[in-house]
Amino acid sequence: MDEENLEPLNGEHFYESDGQGQDLGDTITKVTGMYKEWFLDYASYVILERAVPAIEDGFKPVQRRIMHSLRELDDGRYNKVANVVGHTMQYHPHGDASIGDAMVQIGQKELLIDTQGNWGNILTGDGAAASRYIEARLSKFALEVLYSPKITPWQSSYDGRRNEPINLPVKFPLLLAQGAEGIAVGLSTKVLPHNFNELIDASVKILKGKPFTLYPDFPTEGIADISNYNDGVRGGRVRVRARISQLDKSTLAITQIPFSTNTGSLIDSILKANEKGKLKIKKIEDNTAADVEILIHLPPGVSPDKTIDALFAFTACETSVAPLGCVIENHKPLFIGVSDMLKISTHRTVDLLKRELEIQLDELEESWHFQSLERIFIENRIYRLIEEEETWEGVIRAIDEGLKPFTAHLRRAVTEEDIVRLTEIRIKRISKFDIDKAQEKIEALEGEIEQVKYHLDHIIDFAINYFTGLKERYGKGRERKTELRSFDNIEATKVVLRNTKLYVNREEGFVGTGLKKDEYVADCSDIDDVIVFLRDGSMIVTKVDVKTFVGKDIIHVAVFDKNDKRTIYNMIYRDGKSGPSYIKRFNVSGITRDKVYDLTSGTANSMVLYFSDNPNGEAEVVTVLLRQVGSIKKLKFDIDFANIAIKGRGSRGNTVAKYPIKKIELKEKGISTLKPRRIWFDDTVQRLNVDGRGELLGEFRPNDRLLIVNQNGRLKTIIPELTTHFEDGMIVLEKWNAKKPLSAIYYDGEKDRYFIKRFLVENENKEELFITDHPKSQLEIIATDYRPVAEIVFAKVKGVQKENLVVDMENFIAVKGIKALGNILTTEKVKQISLLEPLPYEEPEPEIIEEPEAIAEDEGVDNTTLDDDGQITLSLE
User: Fold this and answer.
1) Does residue 105 lie in a domain region?
2) Which of 93, 208, 515, 738 is deepest in the core (most CB within 10 A)?
3) Which residues does 598 contact at the CB level (< 8 Å), separation at least 6?
4) How far apart are CA 276 and CA 272, in angstroms?
5) Which domain holds residue 75?
6) Within this chain, do residues 711 and 766 fall inside the same structural domain, yes or no?
7) E strand map for 418-499
8) Dihedral sign for Cα atoms in the order 37, 42, 43, 49
9) Regarding beta strands 519-524 and 500-505, do their DSSP bridges make them parallel or antiparallel, or are they unpaired?
10) Last residue of a domain, which of 611, 642, 668?
11) Cβ distance 187 to 333 under 8 Å?
12) Closest listed residue to residue 721, CA positions, set 568, 554, 495, 543
């Protein structure tokens, strides 16, 4: 081919000569031209005809064709799905596989199709049986809300042989009830499913002009955080979690799973996290059948609470779903929120109901017209007027003339078509005609006409009644499945399993997990950070790695928690080679990874003389020994770190001595100088926090514990860790006072009696049952007040009502052991037991621990001059 005969690539065609002067340009089309035209056609087709549902009825084309085919085949009996698929292929120009898959998805939503056979399981991810083995028919709900041929717009099928609906007249927000998902060319859609009854309630609110909110409800149940749902438009996000409970100290149970997962994928994600060392499990059992039950067995010593958080952090037990409301309206994609979708659906339902009523009114009025005309025709014996007529025109004219004196009350003029219908009345019917029954029919029709007109005049009330009727008929058993709750954010570094060991080579300055011949530091994970302090007073935080150089002469190394503000570092350092020594206390937060921080005054040759890390702000007493030089009188003195204020890590500190120090020794370990930690319980997320959210439980020192009592009669005390999970059924959560007795009234199932008991928690490290273990035994009330009072309301016996009994529980029974049965409260039948206001009691004043006052900056000890040589003892506590 000659280059002269080719046009530039940006033209529509290029031309080629056949060697004989003939132009072949008309037969060759350029690629860019084909791309522009054909790809646009393809993209439009995928968007409009395959992937995105229509706003009018909520169906994609294949779904609409399936529902239309089911209606054509409907005779009340089940049809083989294979037959339905074959019938649908008359309308759907694609393979049977796509039709079968779409039909299974509709059937699994259990709303429009009654299914029979193995249709798969959305919980386990198991697929449906082959289409020849399963059967389907329309549900009663579908028959009521999907079809109305007289108001259905129709179009020709792809081959022109049949008519199919453009949109089905769906009188329900079906798109929001079922949800929809699809990927097209250049866009996608993901409408989350919502609750059947809540959608109806919201539609009624729209019609009444009231505000409403919509939140998703998933068929897999689970727990959802919808705080960022954003009305289902682009940019929103829904976090969904599995429901995990603790069966015992070594077993967790997953009973509900997140949307978009199944038990198979969930278990795979747990096994992968276990293999990567993110968490540690012993084995998994999948007992899922009709309901989800996955049992996770933990090895000894593994915390169930931390494992639950790790499951949320590293597995599919928590997933994030990004909704994207995209629908087709007027043959164009429309991005819209679920509230607007519901408004459009609701108003469209009103319009469809109005059109149905108008058609019904026309039919009733037409029926009334002919019934009235028939009565006139027979009652006045107009049929006799045609006996002598010889032509059809004469018959028509005779009847028309005969009717005229009696048709003034009719609602429209008599047409030739009406007269023709009169001539078709059989003689037998005329002979048996009953004027009274005919009048009754006419009056009944008049009543129906007035009723329909009333509905049209009050169409909003009619629509509200319609929605209410749907809820009454089909809403039972469709209650909300997904619990809505705000989630706390789980920090991966706090819950990851530390299955790797961290080592340090202090002298050469290396830290890492690969230094197995060197000093062991702590267990860690590959996502942890390490904090390192050097003898020269510098500090660095770096990520865990196999081997990292951080600087020679390491004095302290540990796994770093950036949010830990209770770990306090106590330090004494020398400023420069011969300068004064300073003491300081600080915590570490707000750092930049791999940045070296200088904790001294910045003078060259500074050196740390004493260092300790204290996880709860402990303040020890140290003895400082000065070297004998000249006439120094006081060579030894004590310093209490409790007298030093906690400041920022960049502060210089307070002066210890102006002269060199020979040695620093630990004299006495200290107690925490931090204020007790205030802890709250946030009932919304069922977690403890120190941020002031929820109910204040109290101020907690390191050894303080929480008391937890459950409705099943079990109690325990725990250290208040922020990662603690709380079980359903918890009725008491408060700071535990070991000297304060608990008072309980319970029903003993074996003895069929109510008992009362008072006791102290005897074993703080063990969960105990304080009622009898009979299956019918149950806890009625538990009181943690010093002097509780209870009121017993008795049931009527043979019409006699016994007076209520008020019980001073402190005087009723003495404090006994937790395993004691207690005393019988009453032998009468009890209707209700409730707690009243407790009696007054003055609690003993708690022991006041005075906070030490920090010495002023640069206020130190007066010492005489000493040499700078001499051994420095570094104490690492």
Assistant:
1) yes
2) 515
3) 537, 538, 539
4) 6
5) 52-170
6) yes
7) 483-484
8) positive
9) antiparallel
10) 668
11) yes
12) 495
At 33, phi and psi to the nearest 5?
-65, -45
Q: Which position among 133, 158, 520, 841 bears the catalytic label?
A: 133
Over residues 384-413, the pLDDT tens digits come to: 888 878 889 888 888 888 888 888 888 888
The answer to whether the beta carbons of residues 172 and 145 sit under 8 Å apart is: yes
The residues with which 318 forms a beta bridge, in sequence order, are 241
Distance of alpha carbon 42 from alpha carbon 470, whole angstroms: 40
C-alpha distances in Å from residue 757, one per residue of 378, 713, 737, 753, 832: 92, 13, 18, 13, 18
133 is catalytic: yes
pLDDT digits 0-9 by tens, 785-809: 999 999 999 988 888 888 899 999 9
Of 512, 551, 552, the closest CA to residue 530 belongs to 512
Burial class of residue 718 (count of CB atoms within 10 Å of its CB; 0-12, 13-18, 19+): middle
Is the residue at 231 inside a domain?
no
The answer to whether position 210 is within a domain reads no
Of 243-247, 275-279, 671-675, 680-684, which range is least confident?
671-675
Single-letter residue type at 67: M
Considering the domain architecture, whether residues 688 and 791 belong to the same structural domain is answered as yes
Mean local confidence (pLDDT), 607-631:
87
Instruction: Tally the domains of the chain.
Output: 5
Give Cα 39 distance to the centre of its chain: 39
DSSP E strands in 201-250: the ranges are 223-225, 238-241, 243-248
Among 260-269, 416-425, 708-717, where is mean pLDDT lowest? 416-425
Residue 615 shares a structural domain with residue 730: no
**Pair (91, 155) in one structural domain:** yes
- 789 forms beta bridges with 808, 836
* pLDDT tens-digit map of 741-766: 999 999 999 989 999 999 999 888 88
Task: Please state, in angstroms and rounded to a whole number, the distance separating the CA atoms of residues 179 and 109.
Answer: 10
Helix axes 416-423, 338-379, angle to 10 degrees: 60
